[in-house]
Design brief:
130 residues, four-stranded antiparallel sheet, single chain, 22% helix, five-stranded mixed sheet, Coagulation Factor XIII, Chain A, domain 1, 1 helix, 2 domains, alpha+beta
């Protein structure tokens, strides 16, 4: 019986150490943008009609594929001149696909920036509204 208890304790410690190592490894990686695309629609959780030029009052979709950062959050900042609109998106796993959408209500040059919760820029893209 003592031998079984010792073996169970060793197994428990090994599993615990492996779990803690995996958690630490995930946190040290942080959030990474694997792929990012702008487009006119989302179909089957993928961007449809990649584009960087959009019509006035159309919807602009930013599609992202993310690794790391499980149970974390990113911020998407849509900007036209000095006017900005912020959207927060939850990350539920790794890898993770998500998207944000903005109505292009004004013509001109726009940018969209993705940051982590510390404010580190992960991705920045530009597009035009005509």
């Amino acid at each position: 019986m003592k031998r079984f208890s010792t073996l169970a304790l060793i197994l428990f410690l090994a599993v615990s150490a492996n779990y803690l190592f995996a958690q630490q490894e995930t946190k040290s990686e942080g959030i990474q943008i694997v792929d990012a695309k702008l487009g006119k629609d989302i179909k089957d959780r993928m961007i449809a009609d990649d584009n960087t030029t959009f019509a006035l009052n159309s919807k602009v979709f930013l599609w992202l594929k993310i690794s790391g950062g499980t149970n974390d959050e990113i911020t998407v900042l849509w900007k036209h001149g000095v006017v900005a609109h912020e959207t927060r998106l939850a990350i539920g796993g790794s890898p993770w696909r998500t998207w944000a959408v903005k109505t292009a209500y004004k013509t001109g040059d726009w940018s969209v920036t993705v940051t982590d919760k510390e404010g580190k820029v992960l991705k920045e893209m530009n597009f035009k509204v005509q």
